Amino acid sequence: MTLILGIETSCDETAAAVVEEGRIILSNVVASQVELHRQYGGVFPEMASRQHMVAITPVIREALATAQVTWDDLNAIAVVHGPGLAGSLLVGLNVAKALSLATDLPLIAVNHLEAHVYANWLLPPDVDPQTFVPPSFPLICLVVSGGHTELIEMREHHEYHLLGHTIDDAAGEAFDKVARLLNLGFPGGPAIQRAAEEGNALAFAFPRALNVGRYDFSFSGLKTAVLRLVQELQQAQGAKIDVRGQKLAEASIDETQTEIPVADIAASFQAAVVDALVEKTAQAVADTQASQVLIAGGVAANRLLRSEMVRRLEVPVRYPPIRFCTDNAAMVAVAGYYNYLAGDRAGLELDVIPGLSLV
Ligand code: KG4
Ligand code: ZN
Which ligand ends up closest to the CA of 189? Predict the structure, then answer.
């Protein structure tokens, strides 16, 4: 029986988890900083690292206590060393190194994006371990998070072939920026999804940017189209605040304006993002021998993305349970388990790599 402690501090969640055999979750503790960062409308890097410092020890203690294991029961400590915010990554990595040194447990370096992919190997809490069939190769994986949008072909464990990526904003970043523009709050993805439930996705025909590279994505034109629409609507209504000329990140609709059809804009925007993601993934499936599709990363929590992928693709589509789509340490322990099996061991000289890529 192999037990891995996973540690994740790459952005704004302080997380630790214990996972057995790379799939059975014995504990999964996540201390979210979302309330702390909400007042800034996004993640404030220095606050994030300081909060990780405060939370990391209790979070790890709780992960071990909930799993009812001691240090002697564990086989390795897996920690994310990139990509992410340098100051945040440093906290988790230094704690993992200190623990490895003190306990003699091997240290395993985990790529945060790989961890998102491997969340698909976790046994969902409501599934019988005897009947669980893990993903099989070859497969196509769409990684969609706050910082990344990548279409990857996997022929084996750890074998990643990059098919395409975003040429500008990440999908999650687009959700966050448009949510800010629409005054829907932070984080943007869940807020847009909630607003979209009341809206008509056919209300506005936003661009899909399908004519970039065959498997590439572009969301900046869509973002600008939303900004222009809001500006036009505000002008037409004689808004007090004119956001003309402002960059999207700084703009937001006038809260006194009640006539802006926020729900329709959110629904039409979400439909455009999902359409582009599904279309390019379908293209990749058609061009390769992929037997299934995995969705990974925070945006994989999006209900429309999940349902449209299942509806429009001809191969089985898998995605992790919602709480394992956004940042957590169970996925780190799973990716760490496969690295452990492959014989990967990190030395104490391991550094953080904020710009680490998957391929
Ligand atoms: O993977 P993640 O938790 O952190 C990164 O590694 O970036 O992803 C966070 C991103 C944010 O941009 C957030 O708005 C987006 O995932 N997200 C969603 C949803 N839940 C989170 N986007 C769309 N729909 C959602 N339900
Ligand atoms: Zn993430």
Answer: 1
274-320, pLDDT tens digit by residue? 999 999 999 999 999 899 999 999 999 999 999 999 999 999 999 99
* CA 11 / ligand 2 centre spacing (Å): 8
- Does residue 50 lie within any of the structural domains? yes
pLDDT digits (tens, 9 = 90+) for 14-52: 999 999 999 999 999 999 999 999 988 889 999 999 999
Ligand 1 pocket test, pick from 145, 273, 303 with the greatest ligand atom count within 8 Å of Cβ, gives 145
The verdict on whether omega for the bond into residue 135 sits within 30 degrees of 0, i.e. cis, is no
Q: Which of 350, 181, 180, 200 is nearest to 270 (CA)?
A: 200
List, chain by chain if needed, residues with CB within 6 Å of any ligand 1 atom: 11, 145-147, 172, 175-176, 187-190, 193, 297-299, 301-302, 326-327
Same domain, 227 and 171: yes
Which atom from ligand 1 is nearest to the alpha carbon of 187? Answer: 14
Q: If you measure from the C-alpha of residue 76 to the centroid of ligand 1, how many angstroms do you get, rounded to a whole number?
A: 28
Residue 354 CA, distance from chain mean position: 16
Reported pTM: 0.94
Largest interatomic CA distance in the chain: 68
| CATH code of the domain in which 60 resides | 3.30.420.40
**Residue 347 domain-assigned?**
no
pLDDT score, position 125 = 85
Whether residues 201 and 266 share a domain: the answer is yes
Q: Is residue 358 part of a domain?
A: no
- Across the chain, the runs of DSSP E, i.e. the strands, are 3-8, 13-20, 24-32, 76-82, 107-111, 139-144, 149-156, 159-165, 292-296, 317-318
277 and 210 inside one domain: yes
**If you ran DSSP here, which 8-state letter would residue 305 be given?**
H
